[in-house]
UniProtKB/TrEMBL annotation:
InterPro entries: Znf_FYVE_PHD, Znf_RING/FYVE/PHD
Name by which UniProt lists this protein: Uncharacterized protein
């Protein structure tokens, strides 16, 4: 319980909208299974293979996908 003026409510709505927007922007750069970020950092990605769905562009850690590492295209079952 807290006293909220109109200004506070506007700020709150703006913060929520911004958070949602940022979350949806980041979605394509995150693993859809464990939500780890797909970092463009060679040192961190060295031992991690990523694979992207050709339909929706969602990224997955290859360990979560039963798909040949050498295949050129990947479409997840949900797509
Ligand atoms: Zn993952
Ligand atoms: Zn997909």
């Amino acid at each position: 319980m807290f006293p909220a003026g109109q200004k506070d409510l506007d700020l709150l709505r703006w913060q929520i909208a911004t958070t949602v927007l940022e979350a949806s922007e980041d979605l394509t750069d995150m693993c859809c299974v464990c939500s780890a970020e797909n970092l463009d950092n060679p040192e961190q990605d060295e031992n991690t293979t990523w694979i992207a769905c050709d339909v929706c562009g969602s990224w997955f850690h290859h360990v979560f996908v039963a798909f040949p590492n050498t295949a050129e295209t990947f479409v997840r079952m949900a797509c």
